[in-house]
Amino acid sequence: MNTYSxxxxxxxxxxxxxxxxxxxxxxxxxxxxPEAGLELRDEQIFMAFQTEKAFIDKKIMFAEAGVGTGKxxxxxxxxxxxxxxxxxxxxxxxxxxxxxxxLVKEGGDIDKLSKILNINIDARLAKSKDQYLCLQxxxxxxxxxxxxxxxxxxxxxxxxxxxxxxxxxxFYPYGDRKEYSHLSDPTWTKIGWDSFQDCFVCDQRxxxxxxxxxxxxxxxxxxxICSHDFYMEHVWTYDSRIREGQLPLLPEPSTVIFDExxxxxxxxxxxxxxxxxxxxxxDLLTRLLENDxxxxxxxxxxxxxxxxxxxxxxxxxxAKTVKGSxxxxxxxxxxxxxxxxxxxxxxxxxxDEIVFESEMYTIDQYQLKIVEEHLDMIHHALxxxxxxxxxxxxVEEDDSGIKLVIMPRLVKEVLKEKVFSKKLPFVFTSATxxxxxxxxxLAESLGIEDYLSFSVASPFDYAEKMRVVAATTTDDVExxxxxxxxxxxxxxxxxxxxxSEEELQTFKxxxxxxxxxxxxxxxxxxxxxxxxxxSVFQHDVNSVLAAVSLWEGLDIPGESLSNVIxxxxxxxxxxxxxxxxxxxxxxxxxxxxxxxxxxxxxxxxGRLIRTHEDQxxxxxxxxxxxKDDRLRTLVEGVLPEGVELVKQ
Length: 648
Description:
Organism: Halalkalibacter akibai (strain ATCC 43226 / DSM 21942 / CIP 109018 / JCM 9157 / 1139)
Structural class: alpha/beta
CATH architecture of the largest domain: 3-Layer(aba) Sandwich
Helix content: 40-55%
GO molecular function: ATP binding; DNA helicase activity; hydrolase activity, acting on acid anhydrides, in phosphorus-containing anhydrides; nucleic acid binding
Strand content: 5-15%
CATH topology of the largest domain: Rossmann fold
Strand order of the largest sheet: 3-4-2-5-11-1-12
CATH superfamily of the largest domain: P-loop containing nucleotide triphosphate hydrolases
Number of strands: 19
Keywords: ATP-binding, Helicase, Hydrolase, Nucleotide-binding
Domain Helicase ATP-binding: 30-309
Distance between the termini: 64 Å
CATH class of the largest domain: Alpha Beta
Mean pLDDT: 89
Pfam family, one: Helicase_C_2
Shape: globular
Oligomer: single chain
Low-confidence stretches: none
């Protein structure tokens, strides 16, 4: 079948593709969708013909569309058609894994579009590495004396080819986090892939579910759906993977669409982040000593391992706990900096010695290459740490020990070079891309200089359908009591949004200690895989969902979500990332804290009304809204037209 016959409309190659595409898009919105029972939306049609410009000119487009515009259907129509025309898949990068699941779920937008247009849409998921089972970690957990029985069940249910050597076996993807939706996040963390796993030396990598999933999703002909994090990891690892003779994580796309695109900068910072931990460094260097090496080389390796342990001790001594964050602030003293410099010098010496040692051919060359790649990364990260330029750094501590995290403060230069220099249609969509009706802030933070943009308002009658209340609660006890009354009024059907894991756990304990909450099925983020919780919440109409990560993207139309309770105003956390941003600002409260809070608040309130039939109430349990005139004015300024803030 040739490309033209695969297009969802009759195509004449002698005429303009975009003129024919535009005609078909018009038919879809004016005839096909209404015939299928979907309403005709002027806002959606306006968005469609604005978005077309990005594809015609291969430009960057900021497409700000209010809730209910139907922006997903718009970009899907263009993405699928353009992918088939260009013979390259379109990449749709979503803010996180839960948004991906909503896009591809049964009854979701892709499924609906496929049925309405009567076409098969080849949409495949490219999930982040941490969404897959790690066979090495599973084996490690099962080797412990006291481990969870569920790990035996997981091992038994693995595909036969994982541990079998039979010929003519059929391999297929497996090990997705969603397959283990019953596991809590802490349990999954024990067996799920993490950044300290060395896949290069894993003897099971060719039977790994993560590896097999890549073989599967790379063959997509229409849509390849991933998270922002995974897309940015693809960008940053592209050159190194090519150097190592590996395929990039993602194939070359026809277009890239960033859903909830205002969150891309955070993903870019995260992808460029370095993480160092002593036990991983020690394991890496110990491999060298397993070979027949010179004595002076072995002494240098031992010295480096010893200094790595000392540096970890120094980090622990200089780490300060930050309330409300799992990140610890690092006090950068002269002692700590001196220790880091010594570390850098020792690695430089070892890298020089490795060159000489490699000429002796006493170390396996493949293994040596792996060690060199890792050492180069560690060396680079520590040099950045020593220089302290354009840097955010902190430490985290868990059962595995202390971890140094090094993140760039600004990523716009790298994004400009590695991403937006490509001549492709890049489309950013969200209900919140602009600040004070300008896209300048977002564009500058991403290194984007030339772009198209438009804004289209929501078609919903918020004045008729939505109430927003500010409660004068002052502490957690009062908030708990008010929440109980709110749940009584709507018989559950509520989404509770928290700004931190600490807040969520405080609420969870309060619920467990108060038997009167038992009448509602309250679902807590972290107790199961997130898309499973969302599914239960949607189908169990009177249930309640308590979450930290669902301020954006959650789409639950109908009665199941009639009540949004915001535990506190979503100001940024007091952690090292935002501390660094505040230090670089002349007016941190106005330039960092308030814009972040207002953006998140707009997103959180946007969870309530998803269709013309929806109605309900948003309650903000933060007394500052009632007591601080500036805050109240800002909150009132982002309310939908016709909606007033009611004080209770």
